[in-house]
Write a structure and sequence with these properties.
Chain B: Pfam families: FNIP_C, FNIP_M, FNIP_N. Chain B: GO terms for molecular function: ATPase inhibitor activity; protein-folding chaperone binding. Chain B: It is found in: Cytoplasm; Lysosome membrane. Chain B: Belongs to the FNIP family. The complex is a heterodimer of chains A (557) and B (875). Chain A is an alpha+beta fold. Among the domains of chain A are: 187 residues, no CATH class; 116 residues, Rossmann fold (3-Layer(aba) Sandwich); 80 residues, no CATH class. Helices cover 50% and strands 16% of the residues of chain A. In chain A, the strands form 2 sheets. Chain A has a 7-stranded antiparallel beta sheet. A 5-stranded mixed beta sheet of chain A has the order 10-11-9-12-13. In chain A, a hairpin with a 4-residue loop joins β3 and β4. In chain A, α12 packs across α13, α12 packs across α16 and α18 crosses α20. Chain A is elongated and about 125 Å long. The longest helix of chain B has 28 residues. Chain B has 34 helices and 19 strands. Chain B is an alpha+beta fold and 875 residues long. In chain B, α25 packs across α27. Among the domains of chain B are: 162 residues, Beta-Lactamase; 249 residues, no CATH class. The chains are: A alpha+beta (557), B alpha+beta (875). At the A-B interface, β2, α1, β3, β4 and α2 of A face α6, β6, α9, α10 and α16 of B. β5 of chain A pairs antiparallel with β6 of chain B, so a sheet runs across the interface.
Chain lengths: 557, 875
């Protein structure tokens, strides 16, 4: 808990005093570690504190005049205690006073208020008080038996100070329950000491018998006022135990309530990426055998790196100096609306898309732009190959200019070929769409006889977005993401319906209707859905399969 | 087949969800457990039978006492009001302190002189205050006089008779405004009446309240925070790449909690003192509520647990009471005639007290939704299929009922627009799921945060329920009105799926564990590292886990824990190399289904956080979006620096805000204590000591038992079909909107002025769904005037939401398994999230909005309009 705990004492000679204080030092605010550079927001308080510390030290000519045994916990030479919670990095530090200067006065304030301002009926018990300037305080006052003290007892309090008022109040029952245990054990230990001391030398009798003299009285009493809590409890490791107890309290109070918070399930794209990575790793470890823990630690990073790679292929693309396609809109401008429509139609239907040309960088950039149209699981790309690869191996294939296309492919309606013809060898550098166009000619050919202008619905919508120049590239890509997710969700339903539940044709038609896949372009929509179904993650599919079995079992009970 | 089972029971046993009352659930933990075990049949058992029989704790209105005290420099302390010393002179009701009439559980608690007979207000007699009043005064003001500039809060526990006292002490500005004409003061009236003080003073000492500042307007002009919309601030996370499936993940849940942890950090120290010496402080007023605690230990315990966990609500109502008392004081000052003045004053205060008592009673006793769908799905994964089935069934019935007006779609449009906590629950996670795939993962980032930078989970939950996720903060409640009980309950049940919050679990420390941790004197050994080992109880499921002496005891939920869990626990303990306990808190509470959170959680949390922050650029961006001016962020250059600054600015901003609100709320200075620190010497010592290395002691280990906590807002603020309108509930149903109409506007304004959320609130909203008229309206604290006696603005249905709901229900009608339908519903909500995000991105670069453009692209014109409404509402 973001709080500190302190034991305070009302000294007969010196008034309210802080005896012992345990603070929780939290790990620095989460921010990427940067060697050498000072992070302003974070490091400042510490620097300040050290500065103050120095000034304090510089003019520390004051003596220890105002300290007696009763006001002291650890001797001046004692370095204090620390406990580190390795799991969270929180360090629990105990000293007589808090180490942070700004907390010093906070604790002082809490101590004074708990022992000399606030009134508790019976003088023993819990009180909450405080304000935003001095922090909020849960205080519990109590007596400790002392055979030599006035009234045979001394007055103490344990204060818990925090800035979060509500949290502290919420924790009242917990704090009360556990502080009471601590207090009771202190009291009972001191009571034993008290009883044994009374046996040896009954103070009451002695005091009754000794002549009272106003002149001697203060002197007498001051001698007695100096007993420390250690001597009152005869506990050799009192402060160490208190440190443990207070540290525990802070930790337990902070973790008393735990939140169970759900976030959205990962998208299918994420799942597929993870699956692919796992497969890769398994292959690697298969060869390597010595897979260390290191790779596990890195997994988070490499995942996102890979994801980015996949989407952007920035790194690779940057290696190619030369013209490339920057976005779907760019590609559309270069190819022209009609060819673009035809090409993307083939992409979405799952047909094999072959680009043939000498500039592998350009081809690769075309693929990375086009891939964004499909779910990750539907993309199988061979960016540049010296020979033809079959459609079942890849739906994106880049080829050198001279590679022949087999006859069964060139005659198939399930493929489209884009020949990139170098009109003239141009210079490298930033080129506008027109300039790229002037360098290359793109020749698109397919034996497909079906109309590509009706559907699928996704493509129609996509084209609207692409053709509207008012929408930025970012907005368009977000739109594309929406459309993909929307259709992916339809894919899931269809999968569940046809593959898992095995429903008949009529029912399937109804589902298609309610998914909004019917109507104009229905045939294309259905083709798209069926193709995309192949891109579902294994995890999802197996989950649905097992869920069905599980569900049936539940029902039969 | 699925449907067959359902239908067979619809006619007879398919009762609308039943309700339970607060006091009873706490008292009946045993029953709760037993009942849990019979879960396989629960769906078809009318729960009411078991739930209605448990009237354990009654709460008597007389248990709440009000004392108003004044502390004046010249005249000392005077009691201005003590409800215990007031007697009603009305002959019809001899025991005038109306509190004697404890409301029936099934009825509303209705009191107040206003309600009983309007024509002749009751007259009261003020007798000598009770004997304990002097002592109570001491406690309220403290023994040493301290001077305050603002109000301060104290809580005392009085042991016998067991009572809790909550005091608000505030100072009055002395004679700052002149209400001329009246020569004698209110105090004088009391003085003469009580004959405690001679009535000699003629000075005008009225209580001009130091009002609680309106915290709703503390948005900084220069931070741009006022303009950032709540949903858009949630959504304006730029996508890292087109089509990327990786997104901002749990950013918003994480960030809100992180900022809270920073804002309330002790390490940033207290707010610097801004004293205003010009202010004259001479008089303080204390308003104290004293609650008598139940005699029976168990009831006492459960009431206290409820009180302290729900304190923000109690405090908010106390503030309302305070305002009413101040008004009473001001009003009666204008009355010249002394006895009449006293009567007006007493009547007014008694009425306000009556309201307070009633609200507290209702808060404690009102019925709750017994199985809030969302929370139950989180906590009882084993029953998921049944829950889904019931939920889909109820939703279908509801859809059929309001088909003509599309009531459900309209209502869900409003709910999803304002109760925004669903958004983070559909934001896709980036982290790999574990074995129990496809179900929503628990947020690991937030989990790490909770450990390394603790924040108050109750606060987070309250914010979730009220939909207070954006900035500036807007809070929302939903009230369902209707005479048909079953229908209202059905609506409540369905909405309890869409109004979301995190589930809370409470860790109970085992008695054995206590001995060596909380109790410093038990181990009389020099080496604190030698802990006592306790042999595990025989029934403990996992006794000795190799590598640690840590034991996790699982209980409560009654779910059998698969062996896998043990396995994992062992692995984990190996991982942590047993230097510290493998947090059994964590391990114990996750249960079988979410034990996947395991491995990741046990790493170095701070490292994790750094990792998260370093890799989640959206999150960082969000921080900037919230806080800084965009220009600054652009200049910040390097990504790393940017990140650090973003985060830094994040909590600077928060601290700043805290400073502002705090200074306004609670200016106090302590002249009595002074600034003189006579412990300078020790301060010096502090720094000497700091150069040495502290002795390293191991953290005490402790055993915990984690239980589903009942005392949290997710359970308490989702109300059932209540006898009366309630101002606190995030959701509840009522039969008539009579009181609603009467109080709603004032309540909304009060929410903005004194938010229970402990952070400034810009606007308070209430969705009012009328199941009789099938209408849905939104009432706002900002918009007041509506013609025709309507409360608020009618809600327009979003087509996006309508299609969403319809298609999910149609799937269900096609006999697709309910739990798949629910999964699909979540997918569709995720679509809404994605679409809203596109829109946010679109709006970012746009000076003029042409929504059609985007609408055509996304294909759902009206849906987009819905989202624009979304945006506009928050911009």
């Amino acid at each position: 808990m973001n709080a500190l705990v302190a034991l305070c004492h009302f000294c007969e000679l010196h008034g309210p005093r802080t005896l012992f204080c345990t603070e929780a030092v939290h790990p620095p605010s989460p921010s990427p570690p940067q060697a050498g550079s000072a992070i302003p927001g974070d490091r400042d308080p510490e620097a300040e504190r050290e500065g103050e510390g120095l000034t304090m030290r510089a003019n520390s000519s004051a003596t220890q005049r105002d300290m007696c045994e009763g006001c002291r916990s650890l001797p001046a030479s004692h370095p204090g205690f620390v406990s580190v919670d390795n799991e969270t990095g929180i360090r629990y530090l105990s000293h007589q006073h808090p180490r942070q200067a700004q907390l010093f006065s906070v604790v002082r304030q809490a101590c004074v208020r708990s022992l000399s301002c606030e009134v508790c009926p019976g003088r023993e018990g819990p009180i909450f008080f405080g304000d935003e300037q001095h922090g909020f305080v849960f205080s519990h006052t109590f007596f400790i038996k002392d055979s030599l003290a006035r009234g045979f007892q001394r007055w103490y309090s344990i204060v818990v100070v925090a800035m979060d008022r509500i949290y502290l109040i919420n924790s009242w029952p917990f704090l009360l329950r556990h502080l009471r245990l601590t207090i009771q054990s202190l009291q009972s230990t001191a009571l034993k000491v008290f009883d044994s001391e009374q046996c040896v030398c009954p103070q009451r009798v002695m005091r009754m018998n000794s002549a009272f003299s106003p002149a001697v009285f203060p002197h007498q009493r001051s001698g007695n006022a100096a007993r420390s809590l250690t001597s009152l409890t005869q506990h050799p490791n009192l402060w160490g135990s208190l440190h443990s107890s207070f540290s525990w309290l802070l930790k337990a109070c902070g973790s008393r309530l735990t939140e169970k918070l759900l976030e959205g399930a990962p998208t299918e794209d994420t799942l597929v990426l993870i699956e692919r990575q796992t497969e890769q790793e398994e292959e690697m470890s298969g060869w390597d055998g010595s897979e260390g823990e290191g790779s596990n630690l890195q997994s988070g990073q490499s995942e996102s790196a890979q994801a980015k790679d996949f989407q952007f292929e920035d790194g690779k693309q940057d290696d190619f100096i030369g013209p490339k396609f920057k976005s779907l809109r760019h590609l559309r401008q270069v190819l022209g609306a009609a060819d673009f429509r035809q090409l993307t139609w083939h992409v979405l239907m799952g047909n094999q898309v072959i680009w043939r040309g000498s500039d592998s960088g350009l081809i690769q950039s075309a693929f990375s732009v086009l891939k964004a149209l499909l779910p990750v699981g539907c993309v199988r790309a061979i960016p540049y190959s010296p020979h033809y690869e079959e459609a079942y191996r890849c739906n994106f294939l880049g080829l050198s200019p001279d590679v022949p296309i087999p006859a069964h492919v060139s005659s198939s309606e399930f493929s489209v070929l884009v020949d990139v013809l170098n009109a003239e060898k141009g210079c490298a550098g930033q080129l506008t769409a027109d300039e790229v166009l002037s360098l290359y000619q793109f020749h698109l050919s397919s034996t497909n006889t079906q109309p590509t202008d009706k559907g699928p619905t996704l493509l129609n919508k996509m084209e609207v977005a692409l053709s509207n120049e008012n929408l930025s590239v970012e907005v368009v890509s977000l739109c594309l993401l929406c459309l993909k997710e929307e259709w992916m969700n339809k894919v899931k339903v269809l999968f569940k319906f046809s593959k898992v539940d095995g429903r008949g044709k009529e029912d399937t038609q109804r589902v298609l209707g309610l998914l909004g896949a019917t109507g104009p372009g229905e045939e294309d929509n259905v083709r798209l859905l069926k193709f995309w179904m192949t891109g579902l993650s294994k995890l999802y599919k197996s989950h649905l399969m097992t869920a069905v079995r599980g569900g049936e079992r539940t029902l039969s009970q | 087949m699925l449907l067959g089972v359902g239908k067979a029971h619809t006619g007879t046993c398919w009762h609308a969800p039943t309700v339970w009352s607060w006091a009873s659930v706490v008292g009946l933990k045993m029953k709760f457990k037993i009942w849990r075990k019979n879960t396989s049949r629960w769906l078809f058992i009318p729960e009411s039978a078991s739930w209605n029989s448990w009237a354990s704790a009654e709460f008597d209105l007389a248990q709440i006492r009000l004392i108003v005290y004044q502390d004046c420099e010249r005249r000392g302390r005077q009691v201005l009001f003590d409800s215990k010393a007031i007697h009603k002179l009305d002959s019809s009701e001899p025991t005038a302190d109306e509190s004697k009439t404890t409301p029936n559980r099934s009825n509303a608690c209705q009191i107040g002189c206003q309600a009983s007979d309007k024509d002749k207000p009751p007259s009261y007699q003020y007798t000598r205050p009770a004997s304990d009043v002097n002592m109570l005064g001491e406690m309220m003001f403290g023994s040493v006089s301290m001077s305050y500039k603002g109000s301060t809060l104290k809580i005392h526990h009085i042991r016998s008779p067991p009572q809790l006292m909550i005091s608000k002490v505030f100072s009055t500005r002395f004679g700052s405004s002149s209400v001329s004409g009246s020569t004698s003061t209110l105090q004088d009236s009391f003085e003469s009446m009580c004959q405690t003080f001679p009535s000699h003073s003629s000075s005008m000492a009225h209580s001009n309240p130091v009002d609680m500042p309106s915290r709703g307007h503390s948005e900084d002009g220069d931070s741009g925070i006022a303009r950032s919309a709540s949903l858009s601030s949630l959504l304006a996370t730029p996508l890292p790449s087109p089509g990327s499936s990786l997104s901002s993940g749990c950013a918003s849940s994480f960030q809100r909690r992180y900022l809270r942890s920073q804002a309330t950090s002790l390490q940033h120290g207290p707010v610097p003192r801004c004293s205003n010496p010009a202010m004259i402080r001479r008089k303080k007023i204390a308003i104290s509520i004293i609650i008598s605690l139940p005699e029976r230990e168990e009831e006492n315990h459960s009431f206290q647990e409820f009180f302290f966990s729900h304190f923000p609500l109690f405090e908010s109502h106390m503030n309302k009471l305070k305002t009413a008392i101040e008004r009473a004081m001001i009003v009666c000052r204008r009355i010249a005639e002394s006895s009449q003045r006293v009567q007006v004053y007493l009547c007014r205060v008694m009425e306000a007290l009556g309201e307070f008592r009633m609200t507290v009673w209702n808060l404690y006793m009102a019925p709750r939704i017994s199985e809030p769908v969302w929370l139950s799905m989180i906590s009882q994964s084993a029953e998921r299929n049944l829950l889904c089935q019931r939920f889909m069934k109820e939703m279908s019935l509801l859809m059929e009922h309001g088909a003509k007006t599309q009531f459900l779609s309209v209502l869900l449009t409003a709910v999803l627009t304002h109760h925004l906590a669903w958004v983070p629950t559909v934001m896709p996670s980036n982290l790999p799921p574990a074995k129990h795939a496809c179900q929503k993962p628990t947020s690991q980032t937030v989990d790490h945060l909770a450990k390394s930078h603790p924040y108050n989970p109750l606060w987070a939950q309250l914010g979730d329920l009220y939909g207070a996720l954006g900035s500036p903060v807007r809070v929302c409640r939903t009230v369902v009105v209707g005479r048909r009980r079953e229908l209202v309950q059905r609506v409540l049940y369905v909405l309890s799926y869409f109004i979301r919050c995190s589930d809370l679990q409470e860790e109970h420390v085992q008695p054995q564990g206590r001995d060596n941790s909380a109790n410093p004197c038990m181990s009389q050994t020099n080496d604190p590292s030698t802990e006592k080992h306790f042999s595990p109880p025989p029934d403990e499921p996992f006794s000795e886990v190799p590598g640690t002496n840590e034991k996790a005891q699982i209980s409560g939920v009654g779910v059998p824990i698969p062996c896998m869990f043990v396995q994992q626990q062992q692995d984990l303990s190996k991982d942590t190399k047993s230097t510290n306990p493998p947090n059994s808190l964590e391990a114990a509470n996750v249960g079988p289904e979410s034990s996947e959170t395991g491995q990741e959680c046990f790493g170095e949390v701070s490292g994790e956080l750094e990792h998260i922050l370093a890799n989640q650029s959206p999150l960082l961006h969000r921080v900037q979006f919230h806080i800084g001016s965009p220009r600054e962020a652009d200049n910040a250059g390097q990504a790393g620096n940017l990140a650090a600054m973003g985060a830094g600015r994040g909590f600077d901003k928060c601290l700043h805000q805290r400073l502002l609100t705090d200074v306004m709320r609670n200016e106090s200075s302590d002249s009595a204590l002074g600034d003189s620190d006579d412990e300078e010497t020790s301060l010096q010592e502090v720094y000497m000591a700091s150069e040495l290395m502290e002795y390293d002691l191991p953290l005490p280990k402790f055993e915990v038992e984690s239980r589903a906590s009942v005392n949290h807002f997710g359970r308490s603020l989702l109300g059932g079909y209540c006898p009366q309108y309630m101002p606190d509930f995030a959701l509840h149903g009522i039969s008539s909107d009579f009181r609603l109409k009467q109080y709603l506007m004032a309540d909304l304004e009060h929410t903005v002025l004194h938010p229970a959320l402990d952070e400034p609130v810009a606007e308070a909203l209430c969705i009012v769904a009328d199941t009789d008229r099938l209408s849905v309206q939104v009432v706002s604290s900002q918009r007041r005037v509506f013609e025709g006696g309507r409360l608020g603005r009618d809600v327009m249905m979003s087509n996006l939401i309508h299609t969403l709901i319809t298609s999910v229900l149609q799937l269900f009608a096609l006999n697709i398994a309910a739990d798949f339908c629910v999964m699909h519903l979540e997918d569709r909500l995720q679509e809404v999230y994605f679409k809203s995000r596109s829109l946010a991105e679109y709006l970012r670069g746009q000076t003029r909005v042409h929504v059609k453009e985007l609408g055509l692209a996304l294909g759902r014109n009206k849906g987009i309009r819905y989202k624009v409404k979304h945006e506009k509402m928050f911009t």
